Amino acid sequence: MSALRTFHRIFVANRGEVAARVARTCDRMGITPVFGVSMADRDAPWVRGREAVVLGPSRASESYLDAERLVQAAKQTGCTAIHPGWGFLSETPHFAALAETHGVTFIGPPAHVMALMGKKTPAKRAMAAAGLRTIPGSDGVLRDADDAVEVAARVGYPVLLKAESGGGGRGMRIARSEAEIRERYEEAVAEATAAFGDPRVYLEKLIERGRHVEIQLLADRYGNVVHLGERDCTIQRNHQKLVEESPAIALDPEERERTLAAAAEACRRIGYVGAGTMEFLLDGDGKLRFMEMNTRLQVEHCVSEMRAGLDLVEEQILVAAGHALRHTQASIELRGHAIECRINAEDPAQGFRPAPGRLERFRFPEGLEGIRVDTHVDEGYEISPHYDSLICKVIAHGATRDEAADRMIAALEGFECEGIPTTASMHLQILRSREFRENRYDTSFIPGFSTDGGH
Protein backbone atom coordinates (compact mmCIF):
# COMPACT_ATOMS: atom_id res chain seq x y z
CA MET A 1 0.00 0.00 0.00
CA SER A 2 1.29 3.42 -0.91
CA ALA A 3 2.08 5.66 2.07
CA LEU A 4 1.37 8.75 -0.03
CA ARG A 5 -1.94 10.57 0.13
CA THR A 6 -4.12 9.63 -2.80
CA PHE A 7 -7.73 8.81 -3.74
CA HIS A 8 -9.92 6.50 -1.67
CA ARG A 9 -12.18 5.44 -4.55
CA ILE A 10 -11.43 5.45 -8.29
CA PHE A 11 -14.01 4.88 -11.00
CA VAL A 12 -12.66 2.61 -13.73
CA ALA A 13 -14.18 3.79 -17.02
CA ASN A 14 -13.20 0.75 -19.05
CA ARG A 15 -13.58 -3.00 -19.26
CA GLY A 16 -11.78 -6.30 -19.68
CA GLU A 17 -8.02 -6.55 -19.34
CA VAL A 18 -7.81 -2.77 -18.91
CA ALA A 19 -10.15 -2.74 -15.93
CA ALA A 20 -8.48 -5.77 -14.35
CA ARG A 21 -5.06 -4.15 -14.77
CA VAL A 22 -6.09 -0.86 -13.13
CA ALA A 23 -7.86 -2.70 -10.31
CA ARG A 24 -4.76 -4.70 -9.39
CA THR A 25 -2.83 -1.52 -8.74
CA CYS A 26 -5.73 0.06 -6.87
CA ASP A 27 -5.92 -3.00 -4.62
CA ARG A 28 -2.21 -2.81 -3.84
CA MET A 29 -2.46 0.91 -3.06
CA GLY A 30 -5.45 0.44 -0.75
CA ILE A 31 -7.82 2.20 -3.16
CA THR A 32 -11.32 0.88 -3.89
CA PRO A 33 -11.92 0.49 -7.62
CA VAL A 34 -15.52 0.93 -8.80
CA PHE A 35 -16.42 -0.37 -12.24
CA GLY A 36 -18.79 0.94 -14.85
CA VAL A 37 -20.01 -2.01 -16.90
CA SER A 38 -22.36 -2.78 -19.75
CA MET A 39 -25.10 -5.38 -19.47
CA ALA A 40 -22.82 -7.85 -21.29
CA ASP A 41 -20.11 -7.45 -18.62
CA ARG A 42 -22.21 -7.32 -15.44
CA ASP A 43 -21.12 -10.84 -14.37
CA ALA A 44 -17.60 -10.72 -15.83
CA PRO A 45 -14.66 -12.16 -13.85
CA TRP A 46 -13.07 -8.77 -13.09
CA VAL A 47 -16.37 -7.53 -11.60
CA ARG A 48 -17.12 -10.44 -9.26
CA GLY A 49 -17.15 -9.43 -5.61
CA ARG A 50 -16.56 -5.77 -6.45
CA GLU A 51 -18.60 -2.59 -6.71
CA ALA A 52 -20.02 -1.99 -10.16
CA VAL A 53 -22.61 0.19 -11.87
CA VAL A 54 -24.46 -0.97 -14.98
CA LEU A 55 -24.09 1.87 -17.46
CA GLY A 56 -26.40 0.60 -20.16
CA PRO A 57 -26.81 -1.99 -22.95
CA SER A 58 -24.02 -4.07 -24.44
CA ARG A 59 -23.35 -1.63 -27.27
CA ALA A 60 -20.33 0.49 -26.35
CA SER A 61 -22.05 3.63 -27.64
CA GLU A 62 -24.65 3.24 -24.88
CA SER A 63 -22.24 2.30 -22.11
CA TYR A 64 -18.46 2.68 -22.30
CA LEU A 65 -18.61 5.56 -24.78
CA ASP A 66 -21.22 7.62 -22.91
CA ALA A 67 -19.18 10.29 -21.12
CA GLU A 68 -22.14 11.75 -19.24
CA ARG A 69 -23.19 8.37 -17.83
CA LEU A 70 -19.64 7.56 -16.78
CA VAL A 71 -19.15 10.83 -14.89
CA GLN A 72 -22.59 10.58 -13.30
CA ALA A 73 -21.84 7.01 -12.15
CA ALA A 74 -18.52 8.11 -10.67
CA LYS A 75 -20.17 10.87 -8.66
CA GLN A 76 -23.05 8.67 -7.51
CA THR A 77 -20.62 6.06 -6.17
CA GLY A 78 -18.51 8.58 -4.29
CA CYS A 79 -15.45 8.30 -6.54
CA THR A 80 -13.22 11.36 -6.65
CA ALA A 81 -11.21 10.23 -9.69
CA ILE A 82 -11.74 8.46 -13.00
CA HIS A 83 -9.18 6.20 -14.68
CA PRO A 84 -9.99 5.94 -18.41
CA GLY A 85 -7.53 3.15 -19.17
CA TRP A 86 -6.81 2.89 -22.90
CA GLY A 87 -9.27 2.74 -25.76
CA PHE A 88 -12.88 3.96 -25.53
CA LEU A 89 -12.85 7.57 -24.20
CA SER A 90 -9.28 7.62 -22.91
CA GLU A 91 -8.16 10.23 -25.47
CA THR A 92 -11.36 12.29 -25.57
CA PRO A 93 -10.85 15.89 -24.36
CA HIS A 94 -14.59 16.30 -23.75
CA PHE A 95 -14.56 13.39 -21.29
CA ALA A 96 -11.58 14.79 -19.39
CA ALA A 97 -13.13 18.28 -19.26
CA LEU A 98 -16.53 16.93 -18.20
CA ALA A 99 -15.00 15.00 -15.30
CA GLU A 100 -13.07 18.02 -14.07
CA THR A 101 -16.16 20.24 -14.41
CA HIS A 102 -18.01 17.91 -12.04
CA GLY A 103 -15.16 17.84 -9.53
CA VAL A 104 -13.86 14.40 -10.50
CA THR A 105 -10.12 14.14 -11.19
CA PHE A 106 -9.33 12.75 -14.62
CA ILE A 107 -6.28 10.48 -14.40
CA GLY A 108 -4.58 11.74 -17.51
CA PRO A 109 -3.38 14.95 -19.16
CA PRO A 110 -5.35 18.21 -19.09
CA ALA A 111 -8.13 18.38 -21.69
CA HIS A 112 -6.45 21.19 -23.63
CA VAL A 113 -3.19 19.24 -23.95
CA MET A 114 -5.11 16.16 -25.06
CA ALA A 115 -6.92 18.28 -27.67
CA LEU A 116 -3.63 19.71 -28.96
CA MET A 117 -1.99 16.33 -29.39
CA GLY A 118 -5.17 14.72 -30.76
CA LYS A 119 -4.97 16.85 -33.88
CA LYS A 120 -2.10 15.63 -35.98
CA THR A 121 -1.04 18.91 -37.61
CA PRO A 122 -0.79 21.04 -34.42
CA ALA A 123 0.91 18.11 -32.70
CA LYS A 124 3.57 17.85 -35.41
CA ARG A 125 4.21 21.60 -35.27
CA ALA A 126 4.59 21.50 -31.48
CA MET A 127 6.99 18.55 -31.65
CA ALA A 128 9.07 20.11 -34.43
CA ALA A 129 9.41 23.29 -32.36
CA ALA A 130 10.78 21.16 -29.51
CA GLY A 131 13.47 19.65 -31.72
CA LEU A 132 11.92 16.37 -32.86
CA ARG A 133 12.23 15.32 -36.48
CA THR A 134 8.91 14.98 -38.30
CA ILE A 135 7.88 13.23 -41.51
CA PRO A 136 7.93 15.52 -44.58
CA GLY A 137 4.46 16.44 -45.77
CA SER A 138 1.79 19.11 -45.89
CA ASP A 139 2.05 22.09 -43.59
CA GLY A 140 -1.43 21.61 -42.19
CA VAL A 141 -4.59 20.03 -43.54
CA LEU A 142 -5.17 19.84 -47.29
CA ARG A 143 -7.58 22.16 -49.08
CA ASP A 144 -8.48 19.66 -51.80
CA ALA A 145 -7.06 16.99 -54.12
CA ASP A 146 -5.17 19.63 -56.13
CA ASP A 147 -3.40 20.72 -52.95
CA ALA A 148 -2.52 17.10 -52.20
CA VAL A 149 -1.03 16.67 -55.70
CA GLU A 150 1.07 19.81 -55.25
CA VAL A 151 2.46 18.67 -51.87
CA ALA A 152 3.17 15.16 -53.18
CA ALA A 153 5.18 16.60 -56.06
CA ARG A 154 7.31 18.45 -53.51
CA VAL A 155 7.96 15.57 -51.04
CA GLY A 156 8.01 12.75 -53.61
CA TYR A 157 5.96 9.58 -54.01
CA PRO A 158 4.76 7.38 -52.46
CA VAL A 159 2.66 9.39 -50.02
CA LEU A 160 0.08 8.75 -47.35
CA LEU A 161 -3.24 10.57 -46.98
CA LYS A 162 -4.18 10.57 -43.28
CA ALA A 163 -7.17 11.72 -41.24
CA GLU A 164 -6.44 14.76 -39.06
CA SER A 165 -8.40 13.18 -36.21
CA GLY A 166 -7.47 9.64 -37.17
CA GLY A 167 -6.17 6.51 -35.54
CA GLY A 168 -6.07 2.77 -36.06
CA GLY A 169 -5.51 3.11 -39.79
CA ARG A 170 -8.92 4.62 -40.54
CA GLY A 171 -9.03 7.51 -42.99
CA MET A 172 -5.64 6.45 -44.39
CA ARG A 173 -4.80 5.87 -48.07
CA ILE A 174 -1.51 5.21 -49.88
CA ALA A 175 -0.95 6.95 -53.22
CA ARG A 176 1.93 6.25 -55.60
CA SER A 177 0.96 8.63 -58.37
CA GLU A 178 -1.07 11.75 -59.10
CA ALA A 179 -3.87 9.58 -60.46
CA GLU A 180 -4.02 7.58 -57.23
CA ILE A 181 -4.12 10.75 -55.12
CA ARG A 182 -7.09 12.04 -57.11
CA GLU A 183 -8.80 8.66 -56.82
CA ARG A 184 -8.19 8.17 -53.11
CA TYR A 185 -8.47 11.66 -51.72
CA GLU A 186 -12.28 11.54 -51.54
CA GLU A 187 -12.12 8.00 -50.11
CA ALA A 188 -9.90 9.22 -47.27
CA VAL A 189 -12.18 12.22 -46.63
CA ALA A 190 -15.29 10.02 -46.58
CA GLU A 191 -13.78 7.48 -44.20
CA ALA A 192 -12.40 10.21 -41.91
CA THR A 193 -15.84 11.81 -41.76
CA ALA A 194 -17.58 8.53 -41.00
CA ALA A 195 -15.04 7.39 -38.40
CA PHE A 196 -14.24 10.66 -36.61
CA GLY A 197 -16.78 13.25 -37.69
CA ASP A 198 -13.90 15.28 -39.11
CA PRO A 199 -13.38 15.36 -42.91
CA ARG A 200 -9.95 16.97 -42.80
CA VAL A 201 -6.95 15.06 -44.10
CA TYR A 202 -3.26 15.83 -44.45
CA LEU A 203 -0.40 14.27 -46.41
CA GLU A 204 2.90 12.69 -45.42
CA LYS A 205 5.74 11.08 -47.29
CA LEU A 206 5.28 7.30 -46.97
CA ILE A 207 8.25 5.72 -45.23
CA GLU A 208 8.26 2.19 -46.55
CA ARG A 209 9.88 -0.74 -44.80
CA GLY A 210 10.53 1.34 -41.71
CA ARG A 211 10.37 0.43 -38.02
CA HIS A 212 7.72 1.60 -35.59
CA VAL A 213 9.32 2.91 -32.38
CA GLU A 214 7.64 4.61 -29.43
CA ILE A 215 8.87 6.35 -26.30
CA GLN A 216 7.23 5.96 -22.89
CA LEU A 217 6.99 9.23 -20.96
CA LEU A 218 5.84 10.21 -17.49
CA ALA A 219 5.28 13.79 -16.31
CA ASP A 220 3.91 15.63 -13.29
CA ARG A 221 2.19 19.01 -13.04
CA TYR A 222 5.38 20.70 -11.83
CA GLY A 223 7.32 20.34 -15.06
CA ASN A 224 9.22 17.17 -14.17
CA VAL A 225 9.41 14.66 -17.04
CA VAL A 226 11.16 11.30 -17.36
CA HIS A 227 11.23 8.65 -20.06
CA LEU A 228 11.26 4.89 -19.59
CA GLY A 229 13.13 4.16 -22.78
CA GLU A 230 11.66 3.09 -26.09
CA ARG A 231 9.71 0.16 -27.50
CA ASP A 232 9.79 -1.44 -30.94
CA CYS A 233 6.23 -2.13 -32.10
CA THR A 234 6.95 -2.86 -35.75
CA ILE A 235 5.16 -6.22 -35.96
CA GLN A 236 1.59 -5.16 -36.69
CA ARG A 237 -1.44 -6.27 -38.63
CA ASN A 238 -3.81 -3.62 -40.05
CA HIS A 239 -2.07 -1.01 -37.86
CA GLN A 240 -2.80 -3.08 -34.73
CA LYS A 241 0.32 -4.11 -32.79
CA LEU A 242 0.94 -7.81 -32.20
CA VAL A 243 4.45 -8.03 -30.69
CA GLU A 244 6.19 -5.27 -28.75
CA GLU A 245 9.67 -5.22 -27.24
CA SER A 246 12.05 -2.97 -25.39
CA PRO A 247 14.65 -1.80 -26.11
CA ALA A 248 14.49 -1.23 -29.88
CA ILE A 249 17.78 -2.82 -30.87
CA ALA A 250 17.60 -1.44 -34.43
CA LEU A 251 18.24 2.05 -33.04
CA ASP A 252 21.63 3.72 -33.20
CA PRO A 253 22.61 4.60 -29.59
CA GLU A 254 23.25 8.25 -30.45
CA GLU A 255 19.87 8.58 -32.20
CA ARG A 256 18.21 6.90 -29.22
CA GLU A 257 19.65 9.28 -26.65
CA ARG A 258 19.01 12.37 -28.76
CA THR A 259 15.36 11.48 -29.36
CA LEU A 260 14.65 10.36 -25.79
CA ALA A 261 15.90 13.69 -24.47
CA ALA A 262 14.00 15.69 -27.12
CA ALA A 263 10.77 13.78 -26.42
CA ALA A 264 11.00 14.55 -22.70
CA GLU A 265 11.64 18.21 -23.46
CA ALA A 266 8.67 18.32 -25.85
CA CYS A 267 6.48 16.82 -23.13
CA ARG A 268 7.62 19.52 -20.73
CA ARG A 269 6.96 22.32 -23.23
CA ILE A 270 3.34 21.38 -23.88
CA GLY A 271 2.54 21.01 -20.16
CA TYR A 272 1.87 17.30 -20.34
CA VAL A 273 0.78 15.51 -17.15
CA GLY A 274 0.64 11.76 -16.58
CA ALA A 275 1.74 8.82 -18.72
CA GLY A 276 1.96 9.23 -22.47
CA THR A 277 3.64 7.77 -25.52
CA MET A 278 5.24 9.41 -28.54
CA GLU A 279 5.26 7.31 -31.69
CA PHE A 280 7.97 7.47 -34.36
CA LEU A 281 8.95 5.85 -37.63
CA LEU A 282 12.57 4.84 -38.04
CA ASP A 283 13.45 5.70 -41.64
CA GLY A 284 16.01 4.16 -43.98
CA ASP A 285 18.67 6.61 -42.77
CA GLY A 286 18.30 5.47 -39.17
CA LYS A 287 16.49 8.65 -38.10
CA LEU A 288 13.42 8.68 -35.86
CA ARG A 289 10.57 10.81 -37.20
CA PHE A 290 7.63 11.82 -34.99
CA MET A 291 4.18 10.54 -36.04
CA GLU A 292 1.81 11.18 -33.15
CA MET A 293 1.35 11.16 -29.40
CA ASN A 294 -0.98 8.86 -27.51
CA THR A 295 -2.21 10.82 -24.50
CA ARG A 296 -2.87 7.77 -22.35
CA LEU A 297 -1.30 4.55 -21.19
CA GLN A 298 -0.59 2.09 -24.02
CA VAL A 299 -1.56 -1.57 -24.14
CA GLU A 300 2.14 -2.39 -24.32
CA HIS A 301 3.20 -0.31 -21.31
CA CYS A 302 4.02 -3.58 -19.53
CA VAL A 303 7.32 -4.09 -21.36
CA SER A 304 8.51 -0.71 -20.08
CA GLU A 305 7.35 -1.62 -16.57
CA MET A 306 9.29 -4.88 -16.68
CA ARG A 307 12.53 -3.12 -17.62
CA ALA A 308 12.13 -0.15 -15.24
CA GLY A 309 10.66 -2.02 -12.27
CA LEU A 310 7.86 0.58 -11.99
CA ASP A 311 4.07 0.38 -11.93
CA LEU A 312 2.90 3.01 -14.42
CA VAL A 313 -0.70 2.91 -13.21
CA GLU A 314 0.51 3.72 -9.70
CA GLU A 315 2.62 6.57 -11.06
CA GLN A 316 -0.41 7.89 -12.99
CA ILE A 317 -2.55 7.86 -9.87
CA LEU A 318 0.04 9.61 -7.71
CA VAL A 319 0.65 12.33 -10.30
CA ALA A 320 -3.11 12.88 -10.67
CA ALA A 321 -3.36 13.20 -6.87
CA GLY A 322 -0.91 16.10 -7.01
CA HIS A 323 2.37 14.40 -6.13
CA ALA A 324 5.63 15.22 -7.86
CA LEU A 325 7.37 12.40 -9.68
CA ARG A 326 9.16 10.11 -7.29
CA HIS A 327 11.87 9.35 -9.83
CA THR A 328 14.48 11.36 -11.67
CA GLN A 329 15.91 10.32 -15.01
CA ALA A 330 19.15 9.37 -13.29
CA SER A 331 17.36 7.12 -10.78
CA ILE A 332 15.52 5.08 -13.43
CA GLU A 333 17.54 2.01 -14.42
CA LEU A 334 16.33 0.07 -17.44
CA ARG A 335 17.36 -3.57 -17.16
CA GLY A 336 17.45 -6.38 -19.68
CA HIS A 337 14.99 -6.97 -22.51
CA ALA A 338 11.21 -7.42 -22.47
CA ILE A 339 8.78 -8.75 -25.10
CA GLU A 340 4.97 -8.68 -25.11
CA CYS A 341 2.60 -10.80 -27.20
CA ARG A 342 -1.08 -9.91 -27.47
CA ILE A 343 -3.13 -13.09 -27.61
CA ASN A 344 -6.48 -12.55 -29.31
CA ALA A 345 -9.55 -14.72 -29.77
CA GLU A 346 -9.05 -14.81 -33.53
CA ASP A 347 -8.41 -17.53 -36.10
CA PRO A 348 -5.23 -16.75 -38.10
CA ALA A 349 -6.08 -19.51 -40.58
CA GLN A 350 -9.37 -17.77 -41.39
CA GLY A 351 -8.03 -14.30 -42.07
CA PHE A 352 -7.89 -13.45 -38.35
CA ARG A 353 -11.66 -13.74 -38.06
CA PRO A 354 -12.85 -12.89 -34.51
CA ALA A 355 -13.83 -16.01 -32.62
CA PRO A 356 -16.26 -15.26 -29.77
CA GLY A 357 -17.29 -18.24 -27.69
CA ARG A 358 -16.78 -20.06 -24.43
CA LEU A 359 -13.29 -20.59 -22.98
CA GLU A 360 -13.43 -24.21 -21.88
CA ARG A 361 -9.79 -24.27 -20.78
CA PHE A 362 -7.37 -21.40 -20.16
CA ARG A 363 -4.08 -22.07 -18.42
CA PHE A 364 -0.45 -21.01 -18.56
CA PRO A 365 2.35 -23.10 -17.05
CA GLU A 366 3.22 -22.03 -13.51
CA GLY A 367 6.61 -21.09 -12.16
CA LEU A 368 8.17 -19.83 -15.38
CA GLU A 369 10.87 -17.27 -14.63
CA GLY A 370 10.45 -13.79 -16.06
CA ILE A 371 6.87 -14.30 -17.26
CA ARG A 372 3.89 -12.04 -16.53
CA VAL A 373 0.35 -12.69 -17.81
CA ASP A 374 -2.20 -9.86 -17.77
CA THR A 375 -5.73 -11.08 -18.37
CA HIS A 376 -9.37 -10.60 -17.44
CA VAL A 377 -10.66 -14.05 -18.37
CA ASP A 378 -10.90 -17.43 -16.71
CA GLU A 379 -12.14 -20.88 -17.64
CA GLY A 380 -15.80 -20.75 -18.55
CA TYR A 381 -15.67 -17.10 -19.62
CA GLU A 382 -17.75 -16.23 -22.66
CA ILE A 383 -15.81 -14.10 -25.16
CA SER A 384 -18.25 -11.37 -26.23
CA PRO A 385 -18.75 -10.39 -29.88
CA HIS A 386 -19.39 -6.79 -28.76
CA TYR A 387 -15.80 -5.79 -27.93
CA ASP A 388 -12.20 -6.34 -28.98
CA SER A 389 -10.89 -9.89 -29.06
CA LEU A 390 -7.91 -9.58 -26.68
CA ILE A 391 -7.92 -12.36 -24.10
CA CYS A 392 -4.50 -11.84 -22.53
CA LYS A 393 -1.07 -10.27 -22.81
CA VAL A 394 2.02 -12.32 -22.13
CA ILE A 395 5.16 -10.40 -21.16
CA ALA A 396 8.59 -12.02 -20.96
CA HIS A 397 11.68 -10.44 -19.41
CA GLY A 398 15.26 -11.63 -19.64
CA ALA A 399 18.81 -10.40 -19.37
CA THR A 400 19.07 -10.50 -23.18
CA ARG A 401 16.69 -10.42 -26.14
CA ASP A 402 17.31 -14.10 -26.85
CA GLU A 403 16.56 -15.04 -23.25
CA ALA A 404 13.32 -13.03 -23.27
CA ALA A 405 12.27 -14.63 -26.56
CA ASP A 406 13.07 -18.14 -25.30
CA ARG A 407 11.05 -17.53 -22.14
CA MET A 408 8.12 -16.27 -24.21
CA ILE A 409 8.27 -19.36 -26.42
CA ALA A 410 8.24 -21.62 -23.34
CA ALA A 411 5.17 -19.80 -21.98
CA LEU A 412 3.27 -20.01 -25.26
CA GLU A 413 4.22 -23.66 -25.81
CA GLY A 414 2.74 -24.48 -22.41
CA PHE A 415 -0.39 -22.36 -22.95
CA GLU A 416 -3.55 -24.47 -22.86
CA CYS A 417 -6.65 -22.98 -24.45
CA GLU A 418 -9.73 -24.88 -25.56
CA GLY A 419 -13.09 -23.75 -26.90
CA ILE A 420 -11.89 -20.98 -29.19
CA PRO A 421 -9.00 -20.43 -31.62
CA THR A 422 -6.32 -17.92 -30.63
CA THR A 423 -3.33 -16.21 -32.20
CA ALA A 424 -0.85 -17.98 -29.89
CA SER A 425 0.35 -20.33 -32.66
CA MET A 426 1.06 -17.36 -34.93
CA HIS A 427 3.07 -15.67 -32.20
CA LEU A 428 5.14 -18.82 -31.82
CA GLN A 429 5.87 -18.84 -35.55
CA ILE A 430 6.94 -15.20 -35.40
CA LEU A 431 9.21 -15.71 -32.38
CA ARG A 432 10.85 -18.76 -33.97
CA SER A 433 11.34 -17.12 -37.35
CA ARG A 434 14.83 -16.26 -38.55
CA GLU A 435 13.71 -12.73 -39.35
CA PHE A 436 12.67 -12.07 -35.76
CA ARG A 437 15.63 -13.77 -34.12
CA GLU A 438 18.08 -11.90 -36.37
CA ASN A 439 16.13 -8.63 -36.05
CA ARG A 440 15.62 -8.46 -39.83
CA TYR A 441 12.07 -7.24 -40.24
CA ASP A 442 10.08 -4.06 -40.85
CA THR A 443 6.47 -2.89 -41.14
CA SER A 444 5.88 -5.23 -44.10
CA PHE A 445 6.58 -8.33 -41.98
CA ILE A 446 3.07 -9.52 -41.13
CA PRO A 447 1.46 -8.84 -44.54
CA GLY A 448 4.06 -11.20 -46.01
CA PHE A 449 3.82 -13.73 -43.18
CA SER A 450 2.05 -17.04 -43.77
CA THR A 451 0.09 -18.47 -40.85
CA ASP A 452 1.06 -22.00 -41.89
CA GLY A 453 4.80 -21.76 -41.98
CA GLY A 454 6.40 -18.33 -41.90
CA HIS A 455 7.60 -16.32 -44.90
Summary of the model, kept short:
This protein is of the alpha+beta class. It is built from 13 helices and 22 strands.
Written account of the structure:
- The strands form 6 sheets. An 8-stranded antiparallel beta sheet has the order 13-12-9-10-11-14-21-19, sandwiched between helices.
- By secondary structure, the protein is an alpha+beta fold.
- β10 and β11 form a beta hairpin.
- Helices cover 31% and strands 25% of the residues.
- It is globular.
- The protein has 3 domains: 9-107, Rossmann fold (3-Layer(aba) Sandwich); 136-205, ATP-grasp fold, A domain (Dna Ligase, domain 1, 2-Layer Sandwich); 211-448, ATP-grasp fold, B domain (D-amino Acid Aminotransferase, Chain A, domain 1, 2-Layer Sandwich).
- The chain has helices at residues 16-29, 67-76, 93-101, 111-118, 120-129, 145-155, 178-196, 253-269, 301-308, 312-320, 401-413, 424-432, 434-437; strands at residues 9-12, 32-38, 51-56, 81-83, 105-106, 159-163, 173-175, 201-205, 211-219, 225-237, 240-246, 274-282, 288-294, 337-344, 346-347, 353-354, 357-358, 361-363, 371-375, 382-383, 390-398, 416-418.
